Amino acid sequence: MHVRELTADDLDAAWELGRFAFGSDSQRPASTSTAVPGLTRYGAFDDAGRLVGKAVDLHHDQWWTGRAMPAADVAGVAVAPEARGRGVARAMLTALLRGAHERGAAISALYPTVAAPYRAFGWEAAGVLRTVDLATASLPRHQPAAHLTVRAGAPADLPAVAALYERVGRHRNGMLTRRGELFDFFAADRGLPGDGLTLVEAAGDLVGYAIWQRGRGYGADSVLTVDEALATTADAARELVGVLGSWASVAPTLRLCPLDGDAVSTHLPLESARDHKRDLWMHRPVDVARAVSARGWPAHASGTVDVTLADPLAEWNTGTWRLTVAEGAAELSRISGEADFRLDVRGFALLYTGAARARSVAQAGLLHHPAGVDPSALDLLGAGGPAQLLDYF
Q1: Within a domain: 275
Q2: How many angstroms separate the CA atoms of 382 and 393, rounded?
Q3: Pair (344, 259) in one structural domain
Q4: 52 beta partners
Q5: What is the pLDDT of residue 189?
Q6: pLDDT tens digits, residue range 210-245?
Q7: pLDDT tens digits for 111-132?
Q8: 28: which DSSP letter?
Q9: How does residue 187 score in pLDDT terms, banded at 50, 70 and 90?
Q10: Residue 97 is part of which domain span?
């Protein structure tokens, strides 16, 4: 078996492999038969030259406390049934990580169909993209604010929508920037991203938007799917929620992915939400030094801690490091010897994303330290709050 980047001649076989693995529709999207900028496709081939595995490195950037981080987000991993259990996925993901490291990526995220194999390769569960259903009639209605204008959006409004998304997302951790060649490729010459786009403006400036799909019918099973609803003011959020609530007579269910603690979510009756779908996502560093230096850090966080890291797939991460955080920046520098704290790469992922604190990581067996030594010094690695994704890929 050998692994290499796929060429145009391999794309038919890659499509068939993915179609069988994921049960995809037999109608083939045009993007699967052509070169797409902003991604790298990898394939594993047996001795006869047959494609037995594939994986895709998406050249995303993620926001981490105000700074865009180069990421290698993984999608489309599939292995032929006859080749499963023979190290194909490990070989592909090792090659993918090495290629991502060479092109400057710092971190990686993926949505697994099953978590265990990815844990063996250094990714760890860090969060859930949650889709919920709400009774549309339960959404609060308010008197329209006189200083706000609500209108239907058009394709010409999409740059303003992208700018508002960035204002909401850039100071969080983990959210995609939605910039770069890959997004430019799929955005070219497109119309509205949904059936409808509702805008809320204040003095001509966009302060809130909702992208929605009307769905079918108007009976008890009718669902209004909100692809995204974001706002930068409380008044704009109330206005959006009121507009969405106005669908109650013909769409009794509202379906959306709430963004924790944002302006719109704080006006939704989430106590009555029912889970429609939960998509686990996993994280790992591609390059730990870049992952630390390239992100933003809270100005109040400061300190120094030494840690010995083990990463079986990315040997450039293995070794003893000194983490130094001060004045909104951080550095991870190599030092000699063994540190008191010995951290598995999966533990690094949990701490870095804010998914767990050091004591919990130690209890999970992913952090080892001498008896009597407080592991909470490594909580410094997770300063800045938990990460969250809002895009499925």
Answers
A1: no
A2: 24
A3: no
A4: none
A5: 66
A6: 999 999 999 999 999 999 999 999 999 999 999 999
A7: 999 999 999 999 999 999 999 9
A8: P
A9: confident
A10: 2-105
pTM of the model: 0.94
CA 161, 106, 377, 115 torsion-angle sign: positive
State whether 248 and 353 are in the same domain: no
Q: Write the CA distances from 254 to 47, 62, 212, 264, integer angstroms.
A: 52, 28, 10, 14
Nearest to 126 by CA among 346, 350, 383: 350
Tell me how far apart the alpha carbons of residues 161 and 230 are, in angstroms, rounded to a whole number: 9
Asked whether the CA dihedral 253, 257, 259, 260 is positive or negative, the reply is positive
Do 260 and 305 lie in one domain? The reply is: no
Any domain includes 230? yes
Q: How far apart are CA 139 and CA 243, in angstroms?
A: 9
Token pair of 190 as six digits: 């497109």
* 353 in any annotated domain: yes
Q: Tell whether 258 and 311 lie within a shared domain.
A: no
Q: Pick the closest to residue 106 from 323, 332, 321, 270 (CA basis).
A: 332
Residue 113 domain flag: no
**What CATH number is associated with residue 362?**
3.30.1050.10
CATH no. for residue 43? Answer: 3.40.630.30
